[in-house]
Write a structure and sequence with these properties.
The complex is a heterodimer of chains A (157) and B (524).
Chain A lengths: L1 H29 L8 H8 L1 H14 L20 H4 L14 H4 L2 H7 L45
Helix pairs in contact in A: 1-3
Chain B lengths: L1 H20 L2 H13 L21 E8 L3 H11 L5 E4 L15 E3 L4 H5 L6 H11 L6 H21 L18 E3 L6 H13 L3 E3 L2 E8 L5 E8 L10 E13 L8 H7 L18 H8 L4 E2 L4 E4 L12 H12 L1 E3 L14 H9 L12 E5 H4 L5 H6 L3 E4 L2 H8 L5 H15 L20 E5 L3 E5 L2 E2 L6 E3 L6 E7 L16 H19 L4
Parallel strand pairs in B: 1-2, 1-8, 2-5, 8-18
Antiparallel strand pairs in B: 3-4, 6-7, 7-8, 9-16, 10-15, 11-12, 12-14, 13-14, 17-18
Helix pairs in contact in B: 3-7, 3-16, 5-6, 6-16
Classes of the chains: A mainly alpha (157), B alpha+beta (524).
Chain lengths: 157, 524
């Protein structure tokens, strides 16, 4: 038990080191985001190595359910399931209406990406009714549902 | 007494439920046959009740299975008669194929036709559909569709649909009679229908997959079992629930274009290799549930292929529009291995698709035919830039480069094009009889080419209904009480080949009839 804790604290130290190493890149990048296609895409790319390390440690060492980096804080590092699933020990996928608690209604989300062409949150086929986790998979690889038929592609966070 | 009875019921509930899930109707059939054959002794107990002994999870007057054109029109019509209606959709979004099609809607004798000076009527539209159907249509339903088209148009307009102010003249139609939605997608009709249904109080439930019908002792359909909270394609997701339908169930679940195994059962040429233009959920298990409950299968092997599609992209894609507008009209389609033409490029969908499907090697692997058109012909395609961007269509400065790229025998394509150009000059195609009155020679570089292979597009077959949309029973040829069907899930109205833009008409017209009739059914 004790040794496990010390391994964990060692790992955390390493993480800090990695975090410091990558932090300047993120700060530097924020200035030029206007030219880039999406912020999410960039953030994903920049945090690739760091995220991989964090996820590996969380999932393998602590045996936690993998969650997305941007949700780590709110999930308390994958410990708090209740926020999305409404129960402490979930056995079923959550109601995606819970996403609205933080992100606003689907209409709000669509407004935020209104400048993208095409707007991934407002489909001509289903408007704003596609459930969030059709594309955004919190515990797995996200996918782009429109790709089933269309050529345009987005890196889905 | 009632307590012990309850316990007894509970004890058998599981096994009975299992029985239901495994096809209650078949079990009923077996018991009936047994009795009929005199195998059961006089002392043997009577037919065991088919009804579930557990409680219903929810009760409605009408259950609608599916959420496309037919389902939503049925739901709205039934609701307008003051009933409790629930729409049950397996996928997580509403509308199925109705949301992703081109939004072409044929109407006979419309206002716009009068304005544009087009003479049309029910008879004319019906005859066009019968001609394309090669005479094996169930004529009375074809007629009902043509007759109901005007009022179906008024219905969707009243629900808020908007159409472009110009009619299209589609292949196989004798006159221009096709409306196009404002956004060139079926969603231009579905979204207003969804909004109307919601506003008027229809319950819409997505992620709820119907498993089977529940039949009572009088062989009436009284409800369904469904997987609620279902996530396509995870067959173990969600929970099994039972919903009661006091007046009846309307089956409007579309075809089975995406079910490779079931497709291949009907037409072995359509096993795995062939793609489909349909949404992923078009797999036909609800149709099969109806067959288990006694519905009559109609023309199941008649599955329409779109000859305009390309194997280099998914679904309908961008090449289909390119081939419809430019490739087939102004170009040639050649066999990859010989560089020769093999079919009239403007024949109907069935003729072209059948000819293309023969282009396979000894192992049955497709050798995709190549469609070639010059830049003059490509001008007719409004989306050429997108076709090139996604590299589905490729441009070449010379025909030699094109031959090299697609590995067509050197010089063979050039000979074919030279021959074709003389046919264009003569306005006569002695080889395949392609109508060349508006054709132009293939001469102006760059030349554009696309690989073509048919994709499964529409299932003409399905369950048999009468003009009142009652599903008929294969034992009695009489309506199955409490079961109605409309749209692509039914078979017959389109015969051997459906005419473009007649499916929306079919769904809206028959869906509305189903909604009205199920509402008038005697409640349980």
């Amino acid at each position: 038990m004790k040794s496990k804790v010390s391994i964990a604290s060692g790992v955390i130290l390493i993480l800090f080191a990695i975090g410091i190493f990558f932090a300047p890149n993120i700060i530097g990048a924020e200035k030029e985001t206007e030219e880039e296609p999406t912020v999410a895409e960039q953030t994903l790319e920049q945090n690739k190595v760091r995220q991989f390390t964090i996820d590996l440690i969380d999932n393998k060492v602590f045996g936690r359910v993998p969650v997305k980096s941007f949700h780590k804080k709110i999930h308390q590092n994958g410990v708090n399931c209740e926020l999305c699933h409404s129960v402490k020990e979930p056995t079923a996928p959550p109601d995606t209406r819970n996403c609205a608690n933080c992100h606003g209604t689907p209409e709000d989300v669509a407004k935020r990406t209104a400048k993208l062409e095409p707007n991934p949150h407002k489909s001509p086929h289903w408007e704003t009714e596609v459930p969030c986790d059709t594309c955004h998979k919190e515990h797995g690889k996200s996918e782009f549902y429109c790709k089933n038929c269309h050529h345009f592609d987005y890196q889905v966070p | 007494m009632s307590n012990s009875r309850n316990e007894k019921l509970k004890a058998t509930a599981m096994s009975r439920r299992q029985l239901l899930l495994n096809g209650g109707a078949m079990a009923a059939g077996a018991v009936l046959f047994g009795a009929g054959a005199g195998l059961a002794s006089e002392k043997a107990p009577a037919v065991r009740s088919q009804l579930p002994t557990t409680r219903w999870d929810a009760e409605f007057d009408v259950l609608i299975i599916g959420s496309g054109f037919a389902a939503l029109s049925a739901a709205i019509e039934a609701r307008r008669k003051g009933l409790d209606v629930m729409v049950v959709e397996k996928m997580r979004v509403f509308g199925g194929n109705s949301c992703i099609n081109g939004g072409l809607f044929a109407v006979a004798g419309s206002e716009l036709q009068k304005k544009e000076g087009v003479r049309d009527g029910v008879e004319t539209m019906m005859n066009d559909m019968l001609k394309a159907g090669r005479g094996i249509n169930h004529v009375e339903i074809t007629k009902a569709i043509a007759e109901g088209s005007i009022s179906a148009y008024d219905f969707v307009i009243q629900c808020g649909a908007v159409f472009k102010p110009k009619l299209s003249w589609l292949g196989g139609h004798s006159v221009a009679r096709t409306y196009l939605t404002h956004n060139a997608s079926g969603s231009g009709i579905v979204r207003p229908l969804v909004r109307t249904a919601r506003a008027e109080g229809v319950v819409l439930r997505s992620g709820c997959k119907m498993l089977d019908f529940i039949v009572n002792d009088d062989h009436r359909i009284v409800g369904i079992t469904a997987r609620d909270g279902y996530r396509f394609p995870d067959e173990n997701s969600g929970q099994v629930r039972m919903f009661k339908a006091r007046r009846g169930v309307v089956l409007a679940t579309g075809g089975f274009s995406q079910d490779a195994r079931f497709r291949a059962s009907q037409d072995p040429r359509l096993a795995g290799e062939i793609d489909s233009t349909n949404q992923l959920g078009a797999t036909g298990e609800a149709m099969r549930a109806a067959f288990r409950s006694g519905a009559i299968p109609v023309q199941m092997s008649l599955i329409q292929l779109g000859p305009w599609a390309s194997p280099d992209e998914k679904g309908f894609g961008v090449a289909s529009m390119f081939n419809i507008q430019s490739g087939f009209r102004y170009g040639v389609m050649v066999d990859r291995s010989s560089g020769k033409r093999f079919v009239n490029e403007l024949a109907d969908r069935k003729t072209r698709a059948d000819a293309m499907l023969k282009k396979v090697d000894a192992n049955g692997t497709p050798d995709y035919p190549i469609i070639v058109v010059d830049s003059k012909g490509a001008e007719a395609c409004p989306t050429l830039d997108r076709c090139l961007k996604y590299k589905v269509v490729n441009g070449f400065d010379t025909l030699e480069q094109l031959e090299n790229f697609y590995n067509i025998p050197s010089g063979s394509l050039s000979r074919t094009v030279t021959d074709y150009n003389t046919y264009v000059a003569d306005k006569n195609d002695p080889e395949f009889g392609k109508p060349l009155s508006t054709a132009t020679p293939i001469a102006k570089p760059p030349f554009y080419a696309v690989r073509a292979w048919p994709k499964v597009h529409h299932c003409m077959g399905g369950v048999q209904i009468n003009v009142d949309t009652h599903v008929l029973h294969s034992e009695t040829f009489k309506p199955i009480n409490g079961l109605y069907a409309a749209g692509e899930v039914t078979g017959g109205p389109h015969g051997a080949s459906r005419l473009g833009s007649c499916a929306i008409t079919d769904c809206l017209v028959m869906g509305r009839i189903a909604g009205k009739n199920v509402a008038d059914n005697e409640p349980l």
